[in-house]
Fold:
Amino acid sequence: MTFSVLHHPCSSSQFVSAMTLGSIVGMVSITRRYTMYARVVSAHAQLNKLDEAIAICQSMEPAWQQQKGFQGANLLINRETGAILSISTWATRTDLDATEASGWYQEQVARFSKTWVEQPVREIFEIAVNIGIAQAVGGA
Structure:
């Protein structure tokens, strides 16, 4: 029997699995406490511009990946109302703040300006719980 550690890169939990011949016998959760942060931007887009907003967000992936501390991003949309939520997660508050101090965040927001009905609202949150799918690290 061998043991592997499973970890999700955006989660504060790790799992230890007992493995026999490559199959998982069981998992035990090991929780670690550390703080991550999220920037949540809410806006309303013109209904006929939602696909354009999605394309803009998709085109930003390389720029997101280059930012220190970037952990992930989601764009949530409501096709009936035009409501949009952009949620990006950051390893530290310092990493998140650096994207605003450098002007990078403002440049990205400006790319969406032709799709909005009104100016977006930005809020910063501490991530208290993050649950994700475990991924294998190491091997049996």
User: Anything to note?
Assistant: DSSP finds four helices and eight strands in the chain. Residues 50-59 form the longest helix (10 residues). The beta strands are 2-7, 13-20, 23-31, 36-44, 70-77, 83-90, 121-127, 136-137.
